[in-house]
Design a protein that fits this description.
Structural class of chain B: mainly alpha
Strand order of the largest sheet of chain A: 6-7-8-3-9-10
Largest sheet of chain B: none
Strand content of chain B: under 5%
Strand content of chain A: 25-35%
Chains: A alpha+beta (about 375), B mainly alpha (about 280), C mainly alpha (about 300)
Distance between the termini of chain A: 12 Å
CATH superfamily of the largest domain in chain A: P-loop containing nucleotide triphosphate hydrolases
Radius of gyration of chain A: 25 Å
CATH superfamily of one domain in chain B: MetI-like
Oligomer: heterotrimer
Largest sheet of chain A: 6 strands, mixed
Largest interface: B-C, 90 and 90 residues
CATH class of the largest domain in chain A: Alpha Beta
CATH topology of one domain in chain B: MetI-like fold
Number of strands of chain A: 20
Order of helices and strands of chain A: EEEHEEEHHHEHEHEEHHEEEEEEEEEE
Structural class of chain A: alpha+beta
Distance between the termini of chain B: 48 Å
Order of helices and strands of chain B: HHHHHHHHHHH
């Protein structure tokens, strides 16, 4: 059963901190953002996830003030942001290219926004020192951006965007420019800093891992619309549509028909197997549905399991070794492929499977998600 | 066999470059050498002398021309940089405005249009204005207008190319941090294009200092620029005083260009070193 | 009213100031030249084009200048000659400049800034003086003149019709084309260099990998890719050369009459302003096609960024 929540997980009596209401952005006929609505709570880290061209960056830019919505409202803490230029908005952005001013030192970069506010000199110094300490770059204060490594530049960009202690932080592909190793370390560091500061954060990314590790809620976007909004676990385990199921992680999608519909269970017949799903669904007998099954929820055994449901025979066609786990591609009777992910829990297993092996795959009654769209 | 072809190719390349540079520099070297020639006929070497240089000190016509040219060049450079920067901004920042194609055409045309055409048309226009309004008289100001037109075209090209290379996110970041549009310009954009403004200034200064045709059409009595003095003397024949002026100009320019190149190259090397050091952590 | 407000906004002023300057100092003068070229000259002023007297509105356009230009063989020949000299100069600049720019672009990266500076240095030095220097070099007894005579090359030039008598190299088509090529060479080298230096050398490696010899790779890969540079350089040389005045005046002779000198003489010597105007208009018409090409190239270069 699919769940979706555009409301924060903590039900609040007062209106949400950031309200995006029916926002549309039309570029001469092309709707980059097509009527989206969203509520974001104070202190949340929210991710807009989607592939390039889905409209996430446009939406972010509308929050920052670099684009104006064709229609709809954006309300922050009760105040309508329409017509407010970027330099008057209480949010700050960390750009994908970091956009550090090359002619200014690290210290001056961070102080830039504070100087525009007209703060007295000692207050500025206090704030800048504090931010430098937060990102652990106190020793580099006098350096120029080109004298810093990529990771260091990113931390300066973060410090600069937090310097004015904004009501909301906007991140544009924050980890895009870093290599994989650095990315993993930075993800955790970044979240710690943001949560430590307590600022509400909206980030944009095309990397699912990034979204799922860093955000408390995710909106999956495609073609200007939200397909699903929810916590990472909800989106992963209970995707609302085929697209979302396929977009996040790996999934096996099997088309079938409901042959038994009861309040506490349904049976779905597919080309290669029969699924017994341990909960009821909204629908009726004979309805065509798609069963989504994640590869890691499937077990591989050599001999046929006892269950007549939730199992299928196949021949191992492909194997991809990833070190900590292996993905097997099983060729089923109908010619379809089933992806099974098996964790390498032991260093050398007697039962190691190999190409050409005939095996059985089986899964539990709660492993699937039934999708109607 | 393969080795021989590669060597041949390399020597061909060196040779072509060498001959090319020789071609470019022969006149310059000749001017310098003959400026020290103690002979009214440049091609006959009679001995080393500095008399042409001392004569220059009392050559009032040439000195007056030089002073006038320097004044005009300075004003041209300043005006061209201002107009050129405005035009470059208009073309880079605003993709759509009424008359953009015409604007772009008019900005670029003076780069290639024959100067006789520009000079004539500008003069005719200024004469018509003078007939109607009583001013401007042909003189320093009219020459300045002509040089401005040419200088603006060059300045626009230089500034425009730098502006296009600028990361637009820098200006967005400045706005995001609270800078109003004019603050963005003065605090972020201007420092970043500063070097190209200096280049444009020097380029237009040189062009103005060297211009003959526009100055000829647009000058009036008493406003003879140095190139016009040189030109009228050169037309009559070979004149050693011209060699002396030429050498002085060459020396000044050479020192300037070499010094500038050296400093720019050194700054760039330092920058590369910094970036490499940073990457190592 | 909103339009006016728009003009005085920041964006409006940035566009309006240079635009107004150009309209006043570039477009308006051209329109005036056009008008004057069809006017009747009355001692030192012009008769009005449109007169209204005795109830009669009369428009007087004097096209005789244009008729004269197109019919008089001297003018016609001069225009053609100007185009020919400009074309010859452009081809020579291309022939000398392309290999030069090519080898410059392939030179060692550490040497390039210095080499480039050496190309720019003559450009920053007064062009008038350098053209003047050639007079000294090419008159009898000058270094280059002596060299050419000693090598016997003057016979070659004589045979080619570039000079009219052996040993006399000044004030000939030869000296003219030499002077123009010399002056405009940097204008050809710099855009070509810019283009060739940015070329991705891996394309040549790919060509070699697919079996092309260096010669083939040059013609099939390098040259087509440098087309934009070739066009830019050619336009930067050809168009101004058509109307060149200083070089023909200092280095050219009676038989190398170019249209720039004709315009100058009409204006300064004959004081015939309408005639000078007509000559200018026809000159612009002649170069309008290359001019449009140049403009198109500039616009495309902007888009490519």
């Amino acid at each position: 059963m699919a769940t979706s929540s555009s409301a924060p997980t903590t039900a609040a009596a007062q209106p949400a901190f950031l309200q995006i209401q029916n926002v549309v952005k039309d570029f001469s006929g092309f709707k980059a953002v097509n009527n989206v609505s969203l509520d974001i709570a104070k202190g949340e880290i929210f991710a807009l996830l989607g592939s390039s061209g889905c409209g996430k960056s446009t939406l972010l830019r509308m929050l920052a003030g670099f684009e104006t919505p064709t229609s709809g409202r954006i309300v922050l803490d009760g105040k309508d942001l329409a017509d407010l230029p970027p330099y008057q908005r209480p949010m700050n952005m960390m750009f994908q290219s970091y956009a550090l001013f090359p002619h200014l030192s690290v210290w001056e970069n961070i102080a830039f926004g504070l100087k525009r506010e007209g703060l007295p000199r000692d207050k500025i110094a206090e704030r800048v020192e504090a931010k430098l300490k937060l990102v652990q770059l106190t020793k580099y204060a006098q350096r120029k951006p080109h004298q810093l490594s990529g990771g260091q530049q990113q931390r300066v960009a973060l410090a600069r965007s937090l310097a004015k202690e904004p009501q909301m932080l906007l991140l544009d592909e924050p980890l895009g420019a870093l290599d994989k190793k650095l990315r993993e370390e930075t993800q955790i560091e970044l979240v710690n800093i943001i949560e430590g500061v307590g600022v509400t954060c909206v980030m944009v990314t095309h990397d699912q891992e990034e979204a799922m590790t860093m955000a408390s809620r995710i909106a999956v976007m495609s073609e200007g619309r939200f397909l699903q909004v929810g916590a990472p676990g909800d989106i992963y385990e209970t995707p609302a549509t085929r697209f979302v199921a396929d977009f996040i992680g790996n999934v096996n999608l099997m088309d079938g028909r409901v042959t038994e519909d009861e309040p506490d269970h349904v049976v779905i017949d597919c080309a290669d197997c029969r699924h017994y799903v341990g909960h009821g669904i909204t629908g009726n007998e004979g309805m065509p549905v798609t069963v989504a099954l994640r590869p890691e929820k499937i077990h591989l055994v050599r001999h046929r399991p006892n269950d007549e449901f939730n199992s299928v025979a196949g021949r191992i066609k492909e194997m991809s070794y990833f070190g900590s786990f292996t993905v097997y591609h099983l060729e089923l009777k109908s010619g379809a492929t089933l992806k099974v992910s098996v964790a390498n829990t032991q260093r050398h297993r007697d039962e190691d499977f190999t190409w050409g092996d005939d095996v059985w795959a089986h899964w539990s009654r709660s492993a699937h998600v039934v999708l109607t769209s | 066999m393969k080795l021989k072809a590669a060597t041949l190719y390399r020597w061909f390349g060196h040779g072509w470059l060498g001959l090319g540079y020789l071609f470019l520099y022969v006149p310059i070297v000749a001017l310098v050498i003959y400026s020290f020639n103690d002979s009214p006929i440049p091609n006959v070497w009679r001995g080393f002398t500095l008399k042409w240089y001392t004569a220059l000190a009392s050559d009032t016509e040439m000195l007056a021309g030089l002073w006038l040219s320097l004044k005009i060049a300075f004003l041209t450079a300043c005006g061209s940089v201002v107009l050129g920067t405005l035009a470059a901004f208009a073309l880079v920042k605003y993709k759509r405005f009424w008359g953009r194609t015409m604007f772009s055409g008019m900005v670029n045309a003076p780069l290639v249009m024959p100067e006789v055409v520009v000079g004539l048309s500008l003069l005719l226009m200024l004469v018509s204005v003078q007939r109607a309004l009583g001013f401007p008289e042909r003189g320093m100001m009219t020459i300045w207008f002509g040089h401005l037109l040419l200088g603006m075209a060059y300045a626009t090209v230089v500034v425009q190319s730098r502006l296009m290379d600028l990361n637009p996110q820098l200006e967005e970041a400045a706005m995001d941090l609270g800078a109003r549009p004019h603050q963005v310009f003065w605090l972020v954009t201007l420092p970043m294009i500063a070097q190209s403004l200096v280049s444009a200034w020097l380029l237009t200064f040189t062009l103005s200092l060297d211009d003959v045709v526009l100055s000829a059409f647009l000058s009036g009595p008493g406003s003879t620029t140095m190139p016009l003095v040189i030109f009228s003397r050169a037309r009559l024949g070979l004149n050693p005083s011209v060699n002396a002026v030429a050498t002085l100009i060459i020396v000044v320019v050479a020192i300037g260009v070499v010094a500038a190149s050296y400093f720019i190259a050194r700054a760039e090397r330092q920058r590369q070193r910094d970036m490499a050091a940073a990457a190592k952590g | 009213m909103q339009r006016l407000q728009h003009v005085f906004s920041g964006r409006g002023l940035v566009i309006a100031i240079p635009f107004a300057f150009l309209l006043a100092f570039f477009l308006l003068p051209f329109l005036i030249v056009g008008k004057i070229s069809v006017s009747e000259m009355e001692t030192v002023s012009f008769k009005d084009l449109v007169t209204y007297s005795d109830g009669v509105l009369a428009l007087t356009l004097k096209f005789s200048n244009y008729v004269f230009i197109t019919q008089d063989s001297l003018y016609f020949k001069t225009y053609i000659a100007s185009l020919q000299y400009a074309a010859a100069t452009t081809l020579l600049c291309l022939a000398i400049g392309y290999p030069f720019a090519y080898f410059l672009a392939r030179a060692r990266a550490t040497l390039q800034p210095a080499l480039l500076m050496l190309v720019m240095l003559p450009f920053w030095t007064s062009f008038l003086l350098r053209v003047y220097a050639w007079r000294g070099l090419l008159t009898e007894g000058g270094w280059v003149a002596d060299l050419i005579v000693d090598l016997g090359l003057d016979q070659v030039l004589l045979a080619a019709g570039m000079i009219s008598s052996p040993g006399k190299l000044m004030h000939t088509p030869f000296s003219l084309v030499l002077g123009m090529t010399y002056t405009y060479l940097p204008f050809m080298i710099l855009p070509l260099f810019g283009n060739l230096a940015k070329m991705d050398l891996r394309l040549l490696e790919a060509a070699a990998d697919l079996g092309a010899t260096p010669w083939t790779a040059f013609w099939k890969v390098t040259v087509p890719l440098s087309k934009a540079g070739i066009i830019a350089g050619s336009m930067l040389v050809f168009i101004p050369c058509v109307g060149e005045f200083v070089i023909p005046e200092l280095l050219g002779g009676p038989e190398t009459l170019m249209i720039g000198r004709v315009l100058w003489d009409e204006f300064f010597s004959n004081n015939d302003w309408p005639m000078a105007g007509s000559v200018a208009v026809v000159m612009v018409l002649l170069i309008i096609v290359p001019l449009a090409l140049f403009n198109k190239y500039q616009a495309e270069a902007q888009e490519r960024h």
